[in-house]
Amino acid sequence: MDDKLMLMIPGPTPVPEQVLLALAKHPIGHRSGDFSQIMAEVVDGLKWLHQTQNDVLILAASGTGAMEAGIINFLSPGDRVLVGSNGKFGERWAEVCQAYGLTVESVTAEWGKPLDPEQFRTALEADTAQQIKAVIVTHSETSTGVLNDLQTISSFVKGHGALMIADAVTSLGATSVPMDEWNLDVVGSGSQKGFMLPPGLGFVAVSPKAWAAYAHAKLPRYYLDLGKYRKDAAKNTTPFTPPVNMFFALQVALKMMRAEGLENIFARHQRQMNATRAAMKAMGLPLLAADGYGSPAITAVAPINVEAEKIRSIVRKRFDIAMAGGQDHLSGKIFRVGHLGFVSDRDILTAISALEAALQELSYEGFVPGTGVTAAAKALAAG
Amino acid sequence: MDDKLMLMIPGPTPVPEQVLLALAKHPIGHRSGDFSQIMAEVVDGLKWLHQTQNDVLILAASGTGAMEAGIINFLSPGDRVLVGSNGKFGERWAEVCQAYGLTVESVTAEWGKPLDPEQFRTALEADTAQQIKAVIVTHSETSTGVLNDLQTISSFVKGHGALMIADAVTSLGATSVPMDEWNLDVVGSGSQKGFMLPPGLGFVAVSPKAWAAYAHAKLPRYYLDLGKYRKDAAKNTTPFTPPVNMFFALQVALKMMRAEGLENIFARHQRQMNATRAAMKAMGLPLLAADGYGSPAITAVAPINVEAEKIRSIVRKRFDIAMAGGQDHLSGKIFRVGHLGFVSDRDILTAISALEAALQELSYEGFVPGTGVTAAAKALAAG
Fold this sequence. Notes:
2 copies of one chain form a homodimer. Chain A is an alpha/beta fold. The first copy, chain A, has helices at about 15-25, 35-50, 65-70, 90-100, 115-125, 150-160, 210-215, 225-235, 245-260, 260-280, 310-320, 345-360, 370-380; strands spanning about 5-10, 55-60, 80-85, 105-110, 130-140, 140, 145, 165, 185-190, 200-205, 300, 320-325, 335-340.
């Protein structure tokens, strides 16, 4: 049905009406007191969301642009970096490093499995000459729905002395990413995820230790030069024309998030992940990520004896719900349900009931109609 | 008065209601047939606006990000580039080149004066070894309101063989930039100018000759790697999550532009520039750019015996009209009136009458009240 789309993909995510209406305001000049007031307020909100006293910089870019900025501002050609890779985004950060002539060493795990923190410890302990300058880890791997143990990995990185660069694109706003407590040096994210905003803004938070590395980092950059953003942020402005309407929207979204409260936001995502996972199990659909490693932002399902793409297609065509497919070698083999950002418990019930309808239509063997919604409802009630 | 702001700055520019409402639509997934349809339509519209058969790529970035992409994708470290510099943006492209280790030679003119095409001819003819790989010229210099003679400079570049990289950020949509006819190889622009959109999108058009250079260009890039955008554009998609709401808005804005027609759009900007310049002269306010070199996008005024910032402040505070100040060494010495994008003849009369009121309040010597509006009206009527 036209105009009735429901987004259950891991970005873009649903956007609240008041945020959409803020987007539709007439732009203002970005070299104005009015803009600076908004910028001061949203930067304050971003620090709250990152649980940090560090700088949080705002770019007109996607999450990839933000992460690239978070890498190239702190390193020099030939620098050795350790990259965690257990999905499309981990692989992407290795590609970014290679594009800039960094020396990449990878800690890998199969797609769908979590990174093993011990492998980071081993690699870092072996690097007695401290040649590894940065460790890059994707917290919530969007391509597989795996949540990596960023906290533990970061504790090993702190012992070593390298920079800890975290991709929090789908974890920030879905689960706690306490930048200061976890000693993260760089945290990158994008607006179309937990922020309840459309795509268009990237965020990079930077620790004092990372700024110290910036001072002698030699990779070339201009538009993504975070030093320029820091310098202008001190005056509550930006070096290049910012997407002012997205700032209006960010202002509203952060107000909503603060009203809900961090703990409530994280509990909601956890509850909805639990409900989604319980429902999949009840319906006989195998989860890609094992229990304990699921991302509160997204659940990936790897069906057997029924085609993932057929399920996704029915849900889309009959019920106007967009779920995501698999990426790269998982294309056609999994489907992914986003439960990230502006998602209510009702949305989870809705998505599960649509999946039930699809499984019925496909005569999926062993599936007992009603079990998915029942399990989801139970998990949601358990909180 | 709150919520009554009128933008007469060179970006962000006013945005039509139907474009704002498109921004407020619920996002859709970017890996969907619906998005691909929009992308196909807007790329077609962008080619029409650029008067080209070449690729036009869409980035989540400001105009500076688009221009940086337009430079770094086609060059290698140490390459020699010739940069036209007669204002803040010409200087910025030289800075971008320097940040990437290119060898920069500049053709300069005083801020407010046009670049001399003959100096480009001389420099290019002297380069018999064809070491100059690219020439970078800002068409409409936003900082001064000067329109450089891009067509003539480009004709010399064609004779030499270097790439012609044009900053059309404030000229595209305000005056004709016929990419194919003028043999431009790269054209960069941004959404918050002639496009009648908020900031948030950057555009880069690329000729086959530039793509040939891309094949062996070695400057590092990832987010700004235009090859990735070209590859995905062939499938009507983007390599990184695009600002889908801005695509909705772009679709509407391009429809409006096509309905008005290129010739009418250019004639409107020319007429409004003529009226603005005629009014300034009639009010005794000196223009920064000489006749024949004014930009149809923006008029810079360098008042004598009255402070530019006082004029700007009265117009802002009493009449809610935002005009721009000077940048860098022209700060405090000039003010700039944007007449770019969604600007009607009424807006010109409004801006001039507010300037008249400010000059009256400041008891500006020699100013005869009524002369500005009278001159503007006459020029607007002349077409």
